[in-house]
Amino acid sequence: MIGLELDDVAVDGCITKAPGGGEAAGRSPVDRGKQGLKRSTVTDATGIPFHVVATGANRHDEPLLGPTLAGLEAWVPPRDRTTVHLDRGYDSGVTRALLDALGFIGAIARKGLPAPVQVGKRWVVERTHAWMNGYGKLRRCTEKAKSVVDFYLSRSHVRRHALPDPAGAIALPVAGTPYHAEAEMMPIAGRSK
What we know:
The structure is a single chain. The chain has helices at residues 62-75, 93-102, 115-118, 123-133, 136-139, 146-162, 181-185, and strands at 8-17, 26-27, 35-43, 49-56, 83-86, 105-108. The chain is built from 7 helices and 6 strands, in the order E-E-E-E-H-E-H-E-H-H-H-H-H. Helices cover 34% and strands 19% of the residues. The protein has one domain (8-190): Nucleotidyltransferase, domain 5, CATH 3.30.420. It is of the alpha/beta class. One of its GO terms (biological process) is DNA transposition. Residues 9-102 form the Transposase IS4-like domain. InterPro entries: Transposase_11. This is Transposase.
């Protein structure tokens, strides 16, 4: 795969609201016990998301690391020099043992040290979560079926990378854009290919 920076990957979790509850929701520890959704995402060094795992907001980050990295292995076989950047929520012997077993090098922020000093190469996954939160269905998930939640998570990845670049590439229509009935009524012979 050309253009991906796989020497460094970042994994982090993000909690959002899930007011409708559902299969993937759980009590949120940061929102007064209301229903919430946690998503764990792995990205390359530039913030391109590879895999996301959704579960209840009451789950700790550490048990989600294995399933999240398993999605990365589907794209790219583990390499000896791939470093996984994690925040201090993953700082434990269990995480280090898992990374060793999978063949990754762990760069884990230490508990007890100020966070801005330790951000390093992990900020790209935070930016990816911010992009995903720009998609309203993920910021406030009202879906009950886990398969539908997984669909919207996958769609947000595609939407993020299908949008035009500043050079002016043409984008696919996305939710929230105006519908143009004139294009639908144009005769087939008059449409450009």
